[in-house]
């Protein structure tokens, strides 16, 4: 029950509802019925056990529950190729206020529209999702640059091209404070997934973003499910079973907020953000920039209750992470995040 809401409400614990049924013969690319308490990691694991060429557009944290992820839209490394997790939902089971279990037909198209990214309109028991095709081999790279190595100009240029790249190419930027006093700086990581081989990736990068200087030695080829482990922070050689772990590998406290950016931030504006990051000496401060464009530009802003489609360059997330526990430290770090905004 909520202690703050003026209206009576309750929260239902769904973590035990975690059944996943994969059907590769259904629809053109296969479908899955996934109960709302299943985690993203459990879904990836189940898909990988059935096929090396099927995937699902999803977030990067495998311990996140699918129910809440879809209810908020849900995007990750496949967002430019296939859109949101919510865009792949084709049916659902929902318990309404009278305790009736409704599928898409019985709940009606208005309610079905609302539950795919618009929040809670009942208790979701399960989602029927459309799977997507992924190549058997993908390429990843992670190039890091500090301010002295031209990171600011590279991030500025990235804003103009990231949403216009080939839809198979996803390049996000993670900018974070780095170093110790008196030498403090910002490090920008250009973190990428390409749905293809390195041989095809290099010419695309040479044409669209030559300033980054990507070379073949910077790229690593792997299967799609291995890229899921890679972006989740696991080490090369870790077994797929780590995706079944419901506890996070990162234990730090954190606060995060996000914006959707429609106009590139000027270089002076970026410099101001770098100053804010460097000012934070006792916590890790980050800006995470996830590009849109591609499929996101093709889907109407009214298709599901996630309006940030064409015209949005990227999602910008502000985050601070700290190790020290306690109310005062948490308040201080939250204030730092507000100042960055």
UniProtKB/TrEMBL annotation:
Top-level taxonomic group: Eukaryota
Family annotation (InterPro entries): FAD-bd_PCMH, FAD-bd_PCMH-like_sf, FAD-bd_PCMH_sub2, Oxid_FAD_bind_N
Gene Ontology terms, MF aspect: FAD binding
Record domain FAD-binding PCMH-type: where: 1-134
PANTHER family assigned: OS08G0158400 PROTEIN
Protein name: Berberine bridge enzyme-like 22
Organism: Senna tora
